[in-house]
């Protein structure tokens, strides 16, 4: 990133709790030198691929898929288990799964040599890849082995004087071994800290192959606390920030996802490389503080265009407000003057048929007695209308979340963010292939079943 301090919003939408995480500081220090550090935001406030029959206009509604991949002046070694010879590829495809709690999508990677498998959540709202590491002063429970850098032949700590170690701000944190360190903290008390380092990252692919990317910058977290779900071992930052692995892999990336609440769906995938295809409707984006900002012009519910001034979703000259795409945020958050008209319309359509339920942890949350899959069949689709005709369409399963067996709630909430006005979370992107062209600065939305992209 071009700035040294920024704030990222990251939110997890969970059937039992809802937390907003605000992060982060990254510090670089030397033991014998004056303490220096840099703060860089990470983790933000809570997909396009192609088929033979795809057209420029998305059908309504449909499944969700995203794919994006790129290679640029790096040595990518693709090794197929079915082939003896290694060869260079301009695409990387990695499998993903929905986590068991319906909060995020986790990508399968391995780290180090020998490679240690990890599950990290994809997050377009932050730029750093980090995983838990031994020795572990404080670690949360994860489903994969905790990475031990002392057992890897390719691990290398980043020295504090490295040009890629953020060291422009003053901080009293010092590493006695003159190593570059990072710290990230969140509003709910969650934290992670450790060494900034480089390591080989191995992506597992659906065709039983692997792709190794060497010397990737990552955070090796030795002290980690907070509300993590017991599966993931860290976060894969996919923002436009300087520390993002996206900048290593070229000009395109994409993710294709199905149902956030179906951990058994095997066709979710992440793609990197210049060979990633851009299909579906597209809209321009601009990057600011590493975020992908899009121009939201309006919202429709069924055939009704809501009475919302497009200025509600615009970024001010000072950089406040605007709308970001964030795969690391589960729910969608809208600025107040955009949320209220939607809330009123939902009340009119749902409130006359279903009994309102008060969910005390989130005052004002629109929750009702009923079941999405049974009671909301045929419910009008919600459409986000973006600049230049792109649309993101949400059916009932993307618009509402089944909080428990007989209560469903609106998966869009009013934003209380001061710096960012609105966030399009990952639940709104279900059944799409969402692709980012970093050179053309466009994001593509293609509604599709991810299985079709693997043919």
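Q: What amino acid sequence fits the structure above?
A:
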């Amino acid at each position: 990133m071009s700035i040294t301090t920024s704030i990222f919003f990251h939110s997890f939408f969970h059937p039992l709790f809802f937390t907003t995480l605000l992060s982060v500081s990254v510090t670089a220090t030397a033991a014998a030198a004056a303490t220096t550090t840099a703060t860089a935001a990470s983790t933000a406030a809570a997909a396009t691929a192609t088929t033979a029959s795809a057209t420029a206009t998305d059908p309504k509604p449909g499944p969700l898929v995203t794919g994006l991949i790129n290679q640029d002046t790096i040595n990518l070694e693709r090794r197929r288990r079915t082939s003896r010879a290694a060869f260079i590829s301009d695409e990387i495809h990695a499998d993903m799964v929905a986590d068991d709690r319906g909060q995020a999508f986790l990508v399968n990677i391995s780290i180090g040599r020998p490679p240690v498998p990890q599950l990290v959540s994809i997050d377009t709202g932050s730029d750093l890849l980090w995983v838990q590491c031994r020795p572990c002063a404080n670690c949360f429970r994860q489903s994969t082995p905790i990475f031990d850098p002392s057992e890897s032949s390719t691990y290398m700590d980043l020295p504090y004087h490295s040009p890629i170690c953020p060291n422009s701000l003053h901080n009293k944190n010092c590493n006695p071994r003159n190593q570059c360190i990072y710290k990230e903290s969140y509003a709910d008390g969650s934290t992670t800290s450790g060494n900034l380092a480089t390591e080989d990252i191995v992506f597992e692919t659906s065709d039983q192959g692997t792709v190794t990317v060497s010397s990737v910058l990552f955070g090796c977290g030795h002290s980690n606390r907070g509300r993590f779900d017991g599966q993931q071992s860290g976060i894969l930052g996919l923002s436009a920030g300087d520390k993002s692995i996206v900048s290593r892999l070229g000009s395109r990336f994409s993710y294709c996802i199905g149902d956030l609440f179906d951990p058994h769906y095997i066709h979710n995938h992440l793609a990197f490389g210049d060979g990633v295809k851009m299909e579906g409707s597209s809209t321009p984006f601009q990057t600011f503080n590493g975020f992908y900002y899009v121009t939201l012009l309006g919202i429709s519910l069924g055939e009704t265009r809501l009475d919302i001034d497009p200025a509600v979703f615009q970024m001010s000259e000072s950089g406040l407000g605007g709308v970001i795409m964030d795969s690391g945020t589960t729910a969608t958050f809208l600025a107040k003057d955009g949320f209220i008209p939607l809330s009123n319309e939902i009340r009119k359509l749902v409130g006359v048929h279903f009994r309102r339920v008060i969910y005390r942890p989130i005052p004002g949350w629109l929750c009702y007695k009923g079941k999405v899959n049974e009671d909301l069949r045929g419910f009008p689709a919600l459409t986000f209308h973006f600049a230049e005709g792109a649309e993101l369409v949400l059916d009932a399963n993307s618009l509402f979340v089944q909080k428990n067996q007989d209560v469903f709630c609106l998966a869009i909430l009013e934003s209380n963010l001061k710096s960012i006005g609105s966030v399009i979370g990952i639940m709104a992107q279900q059944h799409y292939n969402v692709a980012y062209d970093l050179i053309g600065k466009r994001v593509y939305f293609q509604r599709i079943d991810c299985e079709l992209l693997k043919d």
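Q: And what stands out in the fold?
A: Confidence is low (pLDDT under 50) at residues 1-89, 168-174.
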